[in-house]
Write a structure and sequence with these properties.
The protein is α/β, with parallel strands linked by helices. It contains eleven helices and nine strands. It binds phosphoric acid mono(formamide)ester (CP). Phosphoric acid mono(formamide)ester (CP) binds at residues 49-52, 123, 129, 132, 262-264.
Length: 305
């Protein structure tokens, strides 16, 4: 039995197979319509979500399976003090696979250790969000044709943004990558990530101004300032609109640069960018369904001929 806690849980070869499967699913949906008949996915979400929870549910429904679960801790027995370890023992009696989001870093790992079914980390605190990373990688691979030899700018809240941490980890295994970290000082990328890049001799830069770096980018990965991770509201208000990507700034970017965002967006991308063909963040959310379908099939070891 396999779980997914971190994108590095899959080898590069396994990821390639997963993305090939996701691309096949996209183009041949009817072939997969009954692949999970009789199987159940539990979504145990202790933190709010729109995309991750609903795309997991859509993925399982598209595969002919069923879904059950809770969308917030208050509507589960966590509100009465039940531990994650006990909860997953119970969920293992009711479902075949579980996607879990939790505000505490490591909570899905605790669940995986006690589980009788595969557990997928659907986001744990400011730590990791591996299925968002799979979504981001599938988007880049499908629309740019490769996951290597790319310059990727990551902009916004690089301190608390778990999608950023997961994506850098995953892309650091591909050749020719160059990272440009664009953030205010207070939201810089954590030291453990820059140390990892230095150890692997992967080039990176840390800058504050987005405009200066736009012409160099193959991918611009915008992020929201993570209000829910701030201890102090004043700091959030001061930093929340530090970056606003708009149509004027997009004129500085290469014609084939892609703009990704894990969403939800607040103000960091102006709506006037949405019609730009380089803005692929809504398409990215659609890729999230295909890759989660591929992931469910892979973890349940179901093969469709
Ligand atoms: N990208 C993402 O994790 O979105 P949700 O918080 O809506 O699931």
């Amino acid at each position: 039995m396999r779980h997914l806690m971190n994108p590095l849980d899959f080898t590069v070869g396994e990821l390639e197979r997963l993305f090939d499967l996701a691309n096949d699913i996209e183009h041949n949906m009817p072939r997969y319509a009954h692949a999970c008949a009789g199987k159940k996915l539990a979504t145990c979400f202790y933190e709010p979500s729109t995309r991750t929870r609903l795309s997991f549910e859509a993925a399982m429904l598209n595969l002919g399976g069923s879904v059950l679960g809770f969308a917030d801790a208050d509507s589960s027995s966590a509100s009465k003090g039940e531990s994650v370890a006990d909860t997953i023992r119970i969920v293992s009696c009711y479902a075949d696979i579980c996607a879990m989001r939790h505000p505490k870093e490591g909570a899905p790992l605790v669940a995986a250790e006690k589980s009788r079914i595969p557990v997928i980390n659907a986001g744990d605190g400011g730590h990791q969000h591996p299925t968002q990373t799979l979504t981001d990688m599938l988007t880049i691979r499908t629309l740019r044709g490769r996951l290597d030899h790319l310059t990727i700018g990551l902009c916004g809240d690089l301190k608390f943004g778990r999608t950023v941490h997961s994506l850098i980890n995953a892309l650091s295994r591909y050749e020719g990558m160059r990272f440009i970290f664009i953030s205010p000082d207070e939201l810089r990328i954590p030291d453990y990530i820059t140390e990892m890049l230095r150890e692997k001799q992967i080039p990176y830069e840390e800058v504050i101004r987005l405009e200066d770096k736009m012409p160099e980018l193959d991918i611009l990965y915008m992020t929201r300032v993570q209000k829910e991770r701030f201890f102090n509201e004043e700091d959030y208000i001061r930093l929340k609109d530090f970056y606003i990507l708009n149509r004027k700034k997009m004129k500085l970017a290469p014609a084939d640069m892609l703009v990704l965002h894990p969403l939800p967006r607040v103000n960091e991308i102006s709506v006037d960018v949405d019609d730009d063909p380089r803005a692929v963040y809504f398409q990215q959310a659609q890729f999230g369904v295909y890759v989660r379908m591929a992931l469910i099939l892979t973890l349940l070891d179901i093969h469709v001929d």
